[in-house]
Amino acid sequence: MKQIWLAGGCFWGVEAYFCQLKGVLATRVGYGQGVTDQPTYKQVCTGMTGYTEVCKVTYDEKVLPLMQILEHFFRIIDPTTLNRQGPDRGTQYRTGLYYTTDEEKAVIVDFIEKMQSRYNDPIVVEVEPVGRFFPAEDYHQKYLEKTPGGYCHVNLNLVKPDERK
């Protein structure tokens, strides 16, 4: 079992997308990389806490290696847009990959360097060791599962049939 924290704009869509994948064992949305204790959604939305909306993904690396997670992540984000994904704007919607080991960092950095050739603009995805993480309020957890037809900037149909659980 491994874990990675993904910031790809609104965490509802990131979670809903990754929940569909074979090899994902659990997800938890929350607030990562900020400076205050126990932030609330309202506080994070001010842009003053330093937090970004993240999805903690627990996965089986034998089924879904880190490289494939990164490929999926880049499938659903615009890695060249700073502090915005879809219509959501603000530092809380920045993109980021937050890791726990130097080995993971090396894989992520190498992946981004290779991906850069596909884009005209620089990739602005943060790559940092995971810092603070506080789970979001209960109503945010599995939000799109609880709220069919709810707002989502992520195209959930990008998961191919052979990638689904």
Automatic annotation (TrEMBL):
Q: Name one GO biological process term.
A: cellular response to oxidative stress
User: Which residues lie in coiled coils?
Assistant: none
Query: Which Pfam families does the annotation name?
Result: PMSR
Q: Which InterPro entries match?
A: Met_Sox_Rdtase_MsrA_dom (IPR002569), Met_Sox_Rdtase_MsrA_sf (IPR036509), MsrA_MetSO_reductase (IPR050162)
In this protein, the active site sits at C10
Catalysed transformations (reactions): [thioredoxin]-disulfide + L-methionine + H2O = L-methionine (S)-S-oxide + [thioredoxin]-dithiol; L-methionyl-[protein] + [thioredoxin]-disulfide + H2O = L-methionyl-(S)-S-oxide-[protein] + [thioredoxin]-dithiol
Keyword line: Oxidoreductase
Cellular compartments per GO CC = cytoplasm
Residue span(s) of domain Peptide methionine sulphoxide reductase MsrA: 3-153
Oxidoreductase as a keyword of this entry, yes or no, is: yes
UniProt GO MF annotations: L-methionine:thioredoxin-disulfide S-oxidoreductase activity; peptide-methionine (S)-S-oxide reductase activity
Q: Which SUPFAM superfamilies would you find in this protein's record?
A: Peptide methionine sulfoxide reductase (SSF55068)
Biological role? Has an important function as a repair enzyme for proteins that have been inactivated by oxidation. Catalyzes the reversible oxidation-reduction of methionine sulfoxide in proteins to methionine.
Q: What is this protein called?
A: Peptide methionine sulfoxide reductase MsrA
